[in-house]
Each structure stands twice: as structure tokens, then as C-alpha cells.
């Protein structure tokens, strides 16, 4: 039985009550008045107290129907938080370089929203479990990673990279556009590759660029190597991130929530339903 309804609480509903942001902090005060704090986990958890006074048909079709189909507090649903719904400055258009992703397993990454530095182990954060379809962007090495090279699960927020293509380099031709000889490669124009382990032309190691041309066993990449040293041997070109390369994301996202209270209604006027004190809370593991 599905425990999450992949639908959004109607955005036409006003948040007439209040919201709170909770952090899992334990505070202990000693008899001497000293205070000691510990953080159980760094994940932000929102809760909303929403109230409605609307026409009966609206409340019935938009609120009570969802409440019934969710089996009360059993099933979750999406909520758009109008003060914080993108990875870019809360409400701005997302870009591929907004936030660092975390590795979930080999070639799979979790969309994230950090409220501070991702290098801080105590940084407040949110796993983006419910990205908005069509808004996700991915970056690798500080550049946009082509959409053809990854896919996202909009129900989990997991990004899966296309299988890695790793090919040995046998020669490099310098120029404003660099030509790599990669016998047996299957690279295509528009794919992103990174170079490592080349001897002689060490300046090219760590560089990432798009393939701009393919001719037989050779590919042309958008790297100006005119002033680099001469290539002597070795090296690899690969599509997956190199060790230490940044893997980033941008997206609009919904908050996975569930009802946390019963719904009590009244009739303040003819044709109007009043629903007050309805609490919904964020689900950290939808």
C-alpha cells in the first residue's frame, strides 16, 4: 500500500495559520546553570498550522478529499513552501551549481539543500526527496552536466548518472581545441569528459570539457592546450566525476508532509466551512 500520494496540497489554499521550523536539539542545564547542547541530526523539519474559511465545495474538494484519501495521518503528500522552494536563494531560478549533492551509492547522488556550508558536518540541511518535475539541473566540476548523461527520480530525489565511459589516451594534439586519441571509444558530441593521469601535458589533468567533434578514434574537446607541455604518455578520459570533482545540483522542490491532526469543521455562515487548527508536518523519510 503506497504511503505517499504524489500530489501537492493545492497552492490556491492560503496558509492562514502559522509555520515553525524545528531542529533536533537536546539541551541540558546543570545545577550550576551551565548549558550543554547536542544535535541529534542536522535535518530541518517544518510544521504548519493551516486554517481555512472558504466555500463548502472548495474545502470539501481541496482539503477534506485529500484528508480522506491520505487516510488521515497515514499517507504523505507534497506541499509547496512559498518562502523556500528552490535551491537558489530560497525562491530564485535554480542553476546546476547551487548545492552540493551527496553520494548515495556508486554513480547515484541525492539532491540536497544546504543552509550553510556543505563541508560543515553540523550544517542544517534538507534531503530533497520531492523535486518538481522538469526543474532539476546537474553540474560536475563547476560546469553544467548534460541532461542526456543523467536522470532523476522525482519521487526520491536520486540522480543516477549514465554508465561511465572510461577510455585510455594514446596521444594528444595541442591547440585552441584539443584532440585526444582514444582507441575504441564510444563518446559522442555533447558529452562531458574529464582527463586524468596524463604525463608530460600535466596541465590537462583535472580538466573537464564537452566533446565538440568525433573522428574515428579521435575526439575534439573544448580545452585550449596551446601553452601546455607536450604529451608523453598515459592518461584517461572519463565521463563520471573524478575523485575530488564537485557534483552539484539545482531544483525547485516540494516538502513531503502528512496531516498531524484531525480535521474539525464548523459552519460560520451559509455555504461556508471553517477549518481551524489543521496541522501538517514534514516527513523526513517519505
Explain the overall architecture.
The chain is mainly beta and 286 residues long. The strands form 5 sheets. Strands 1, 2, 3, 4, 10, 23, 24 and 25 form an 8-stranded mixed β-sheet that branches. A 7-stranded antiparallel β-sheet has the order 15-21-18-19-20-17-16, with no helix packed on it. Strand 11 (137-140) and strand 12 form a beta hairpin. Helices cover 5% and strands 45% of the residues. It folds into 3 domains: 4-84 and 255-282, no CATH class; 99-163 and 246-251, no CATH class; 166-238, Ubiquitin-activating enzyme E1, FCCH domain (Elongation Factor Tu (Ef-tu), domain 3, Beta Barrel), CATH 2.40.30.
List keywords for this structure.
286 residues; mainly beta; Elongation Factor Tu (Ef-tu), domain 3; 3 domains; 7-stranded antiparallel sheet; 25 strands
Topology (SSEs and partners):
Elements: E1 4-8, E2 18-29, E3 35-55, H1 56-69, E4 76-79, E5 99-100, E6 102-105, E7 108-110, E8 112-114, E9 125-127, E10 130-131, E11 137-140, E12 143-144, E13 150-153, E14 158-161, E15 166-168, E16 171-173, E17 178-181, E18 192-196, E19 208-215, E20 218-221, E21 236-238, E22 247-250, E23 253-259, E24 265-269, E25 272-282
Parallel strand pairs: 1-4
Antiparallel strand pairs: 2-3, 3-25, 4-23, 5-22, 6-7, 7-14, 8-9, 10-23, 11-12, 11-22, 13-14, 15-21, 16-17, 17-20, 18-19, 18-21, 19-20, 23-25, 24-25
Amino acid at each position: 500500500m503506497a504511503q505517499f500520494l504524489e500530489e501537492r496540497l493545492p497552492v490556491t489554499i492560503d496558509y492562514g495559520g502559522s509555520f515553525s521550523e524545528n531542529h533536533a536539539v537536546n539541551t541540558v542545564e546543570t545545577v550550576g546553570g551551565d548549558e550543554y547542547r547536542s544535535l541529534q541530526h542536522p535535518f530541518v523539519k517544518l510544521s504548519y498550522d493551516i486554517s481555512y474559511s472558504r466555500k463548502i465545495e472548495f474545502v470539501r474538494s481541496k482539503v477534506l478529499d485529500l484528508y480522506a484519501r491520505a487516510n488521515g495521518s497515514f499517507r504523505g503528500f507534497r506541499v509547496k513552501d512559498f518562502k523556500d522552494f528552490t535551491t537558489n536563494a530560497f525562491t530564485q531560478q535554480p542553476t546546476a551549481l547551487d548545492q552540493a549533492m551527496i553520494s548515495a551509492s556508486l554513480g547515484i547522488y541525492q539532491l540536497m539543500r544546504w543552509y550553510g556550508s556543505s563541508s560543515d558536518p553540523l550544517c542544517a540541511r534538507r534531503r530533497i526527496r520531492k523535486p518538481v518535475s522538469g526543474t532539476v539541473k546537474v553540474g560536475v566540476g563547476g560546469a553544467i552536466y548534460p541532461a542526456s548523461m543523467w536522470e532523476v527520480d522525482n519521487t526520491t530525489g536520486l540522480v543516477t548518472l549514465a554508465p561511465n565511459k572510461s577510455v585510455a589516451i594514446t596521444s594528444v594534439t595541442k591547440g585552441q581545441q584539443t584532440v585526444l586519441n582514444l582507441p575504441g571509444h564510444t563518446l559522442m558530441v555533447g558529452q562531458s569528459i574529464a582527463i586524468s593521469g596524463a604525463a608530460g601535458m600535466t596541465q590537462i589533468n583535472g580538466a573537464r570539457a564537452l566533446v565538440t567533434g568525433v573522428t574515428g578514434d579521435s575526439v575534439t574537446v573544448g580545452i585550449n592546450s596551446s601553452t601546455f607541455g607536450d604529451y608523453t604518455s598515459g592518461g584517461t578520459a572519463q565521463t563520471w566525476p573524478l575523485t575530488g570533482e564537485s557534483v552539484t545540483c539545482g531544483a525547485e522542490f516540494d516538502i513531503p508532509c502528512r496531516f498531524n491532526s484531525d480535521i474539525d469543521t464548523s459552519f460560520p455562515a451559509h455555504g461556508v466551512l471553517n477549518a481551524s487548527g489543521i496541522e501538517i508536518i514534514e516527513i523526513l523519510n517519505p
